[in-house]
Amino acid sequence: MAKISVRDLVGPNAVTYEDGEPVYHALRDALIEGEEVDLDFSGVKVFASPFFNSAIGRLLAEFDSELLNDRIEIAALSSSGESVLRRSIDNAKDYFGDPKQREAVAKVVGDRAAVR
Amino acid sequence: MQLLILTINDALSDFYRLFRLGQQMALAPPGERIEFDFSQCGFLRQNAVAMIGGMVRLAEHRGHPTSVLLEGASSWLRTNLYQNGFAHAFGVGSSPWKGNSVPYRQDRELNKEGFLEYLREDWLGRNWLNVSEGLRDAICGQVWEVYQNAFDHSESPIGITACGQHYPRNGELKLTLADFGIGIPARVRRYLGDEAMTASEALRWAFSRGHTTRTGTFDADLARGIGLDLLREFVRKNRGRIEVYSHDACLFVDERQERYMQPFGTGATGLPKVTFLGTVVNITFSCDETLYILSNESAGRPYF
Questions:
Q1: Kindly report the CA angle at B48 between B33 and B235, in degrees rounded to 5?
Q2: Which helix (H) or strand (E) holds B299?
Q3: What predicted TM-score, i.e. pTM, was given to this entire model?
Q4: Chain A: nearest CA to B40, how far in angstroms?
Q5: Which residue of chain B has the CA closest to A109?
Q6: What is the interface pTM, i.e. ipTM, of the complex?
């Protein structure tokens, strides 16, 4: 089982989209390799939703819930971190599970990019 | 132009007076000096310090020379503004020191370590809040959501300003964050292409789960829009309070209510309409840990 230490990648505060990037890539690489992952939050104290949206919620665009439940073991996450993570995952499931919502967002983003 | 600043608390009518000051400032002819005159001011709460600090910076950004005049202010106010670093930030005082107020702060850009240290040490770390380290970290995370949101959405030319205060008599700890950008209603209307949407409808939309106006280039496809919803749930569970003001709308959330209003129009109050083209968030937490519930909502349930 591969071990990913969030503290080693991010430090004690996991709050920004950018903080989520290295964790997302480490998780994704391991999943593509077919590995099981121990995602360890020891030593991480402060959590906010941008981090979880970027690090973990995004995986639901590519992998289904069953596979993620089977392959990722989450360890040493504080209760406040758990609340934010669960909300982030629920939101990502709604978002990635609803093509209309994604298309609407993509259209707005695309229109704006075209205007620029 | 002289802006006379009187005593300001953090009730609805006090925010109204702050927004009136902002509108008055916007009328200054280009290049004219703007004097912020505190000579008749007895007391300012943290919301006024954060907002007036931002107004001075906004005036500078617009090319106005500025002066902060503290002579004649009450001794309480002068001590407070010296202590919390407001006076020092505007060149009229010595270095701040620790006291009952939380320092005045301005971040032009997102400053992760600096702002979290400010929350942990200067706001929550003064033994005013009788809470565990875990709860302190949880509160830091909740306030971070507001801070990150301001940088993601506001387009504020001066970033954010913040100030806090401890109120021992009420057992409350307060923090105000203000930005001077385009405001939540403008951002939501532009995003949805719905110019007819009222400011309070836009605020309600922005605070609904899964709704976000972020369209940055960091990435194209992320599920977002839960930060404000998380904060709302946290303060409701834990007997805190948030007030959000943007344009002519506001949102009040506490354990009993969630109200979206447009109190500053020409209707019920009979007062001239004001609009604040930015967003200010006033957060109140209780100092008593026994009032907090850190949920362990679903231990054992699969995450995904």
A1: 150
A2: none
A3: 0.89
A4: 42
A5: B215
A6: 0.88
